[in-house]
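Ticket reopened. Same input as before:
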Amino acid sequence: MSRAAPSLPPGLAPRIVGFCEELRGEGVAVGTAEILDAFAALEAVPWTDPADFREALAATIAKSQEDRRVFELLFERYFFRAAEAEALDREIREDRRYEGGERLDLDQLREAIRQAIAQGNDGEMRDAARLAIAAFGRRGEGSGVVGVDVQRIRRTLGLQAAGRGADGDEPALERDQIQGFERHLRRELERALIERTAKLPPSRPLAELDRALPTSPTQDLAAVHRAVAQLKRRLATLGHEQRGRKRAAAVDMRRTMRASLETGGVPLRLRYRPKRPRRPEIYVLCDVSTSVTSASVFFLSVLHALHDSFRKLRSFVFIERISEITEVFERERDFRAISEKISREGGVADVSGYTDYGRVWLEFFDEISEDLDPRSTVIVLGDARTNGREPHAEVFARVAERAGRTFWLNPEPRLYWNYGDSVMAAYERHCTAAFECWTTKHLEDFVNVVAGGAPVAEAGG
Amino acid sequence: MSEVKQALARVGYLADEPAALVAYLAQELGKPVLVEGPAGVGKTELAKAISRATDRTLIRLQCYEGLDEAKSLYEWNYRKQLLRINAQQQQPPDASSASPPGASGSDSGRASTLDEIFSEEFLLTRPLLEAIASTEPVVLLIDEIDKTDQEFEAMLLEVLSDFQISIPELGVIEARTHPIVVLTSNNSRELTEALKRRCLYLWLDYPEVEREMEIVRLHAPELDARLARRLVEVIHMVRQLDLKKPPSIAESIDWARALLLLGADDIDSSVFERTMSIIVKHRSDIDLVAERIGVQLGSPPGLEAGAAG
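Engineering reply: fixed in the latest deploy. New output:
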């Protein structure tokens, strides 16, 4: 290990601090402690190796996977821009546009680039990208817009990801290899643009889409499952903790005496009667009407996860009327099959397509009120938009009163509650707590509050 | 860095670049490392490998919900203390005649007893204290930190940032050597900022096909290279599915050993069917995997080879 790592060049330290500033701007919590750590790490690691430099910074600055993702995006951009800014400052220009492009015809070029991509070497790819840009520029097809040019060049070169265009004789390239090449293309085009105009384009905040982790529905489902698994653990231990704190636990005399034998008859350790844990008995009501279409996939995945974790769970979907779907979940495991089935059977609940919360409460109360007791929890997933119908808040109040706890998860931002036909306030009053909830993050927040972390101060009036 | 990597490889852990770098930084900077990632990617194994590579003893603290100081830091040995008190009470009946226990007569005696029974002799060290007080350099592994509650994390802060433990009766115990601390988390809940702030961060993910193949072949060297590749490819396919518990690296290794025992020279659908339970361990997962992967394996091998080549 190269112990005598070369000390940082004078210009680098402000750059790193600037980089951290930018990370903060994107919402990564970088404290002074992290920056100091980063410098300490760079003492131990040679900054001259790009991969090590990046990893050392990442290990000390980005402390979660999401942060790491933002870090990667910004790292590329920031240091690229920093280098370009410096070049502009000192008026360093690359006068040598890539030579050799003239002698190659398009087929040779295509072959050379294909090879460079397949080998995946960064330097080679950069050269290839420049070659392509040079050749492309001569054909006079540059549009001046980086994104458009990248796609044009790609098409001209006939770069196709494996599995799509099957033109047999050439080995197909991996999708991410091509993406890597595109990245190089984009960067070289940007570099040329900066040189031409002699100024940096304004830096934009990262688009929400970029910074989100690449997710597929199944991954989302996994995240929901995780959050719900947590909820389960919390609910299971909750009873213990709270009772322990709030009520004096009953001392088990017999076991205390027995235990005291070990300590010479002095009852040093008290033994308590085991507390009966709260058996979570959960009722979930899920709105599946058109007004919550965007959220209903999310809600269904929450339901799916809940069913995975709790055995004593009954679930209902409703639009205009209510329909129990506990069985569907018990029979099916596959999420897709479930959502299909529900959209089919959910039809029972749908007459006009408009949610009728009032009617839903009446029906729910009729069907369930016998079974509700202080140990049961009612969770409602819905937007509380009644389409102008009678909300029957008093029936909901009766439900909430009978159940131990009632939570409402609303897929709309709090800002929109009680606007238009939303009657959230009427219901929220009777809930233990109400939350906005349309991402797994919100779901986790919900879990945390339920777990007794934050007080239930959020609950309205 | 490459030396660290080689050292880890010598003890049977093939680290990728980031892991090797973080392991190196942990030693150089003396900061704890927080390792996150899905279950079974070798987080715990990394700590063990570091301990073997650096010739340090490994002290392990397995976290679980409800873990408290008495089980992680230290505890007074009540029984021994009681014995001592009893012994003292019986010993000097001559000194101040037969004074009833607790009389004011033997105040100084009581004070010295008090001092005595709160000395290190009566201290039961638990993993954290053991790591701090150890005279030999150690590796401290705090496993599955996300299973504990936030209060416990807060308690850890003192240990992790200053490498010291305060015991009210004894004062502050400082680390004699600088332990390498590795914390692992399955990311089942968000850890507090304060804890993260004190750690280096490493995200371990399932390895690439190539690296996993090396790992499998390191642990099952007799396995044929072609079969190993096939095995890892199948594992990767299985991980793509939406399973309750995707197969871990350890399970790929187990599977490789099982195939060796069975003397299988290719993974076709019948072999797969018989040995599937090694990599998939949920009833519903087994159904899903059998349905999706089994069918693919059943197809003639020529087709697969064509796609891969």
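Chain A has four domains: 12-89, 106-163+170-198, 219-247+279-458, 248-278. The interface with chain B takes residues 1, 29, 31, 33-34, 37, 40-41, 44-45, 51-52, 55-56, 58-60, 62-65, 68, 218, 221-222, 226, 229-230, 233, 237, 262-264, 266, 268, 308, 333-335, 444, 453 of chain A (CB under 8 Å). Please confirm and we'll close it.
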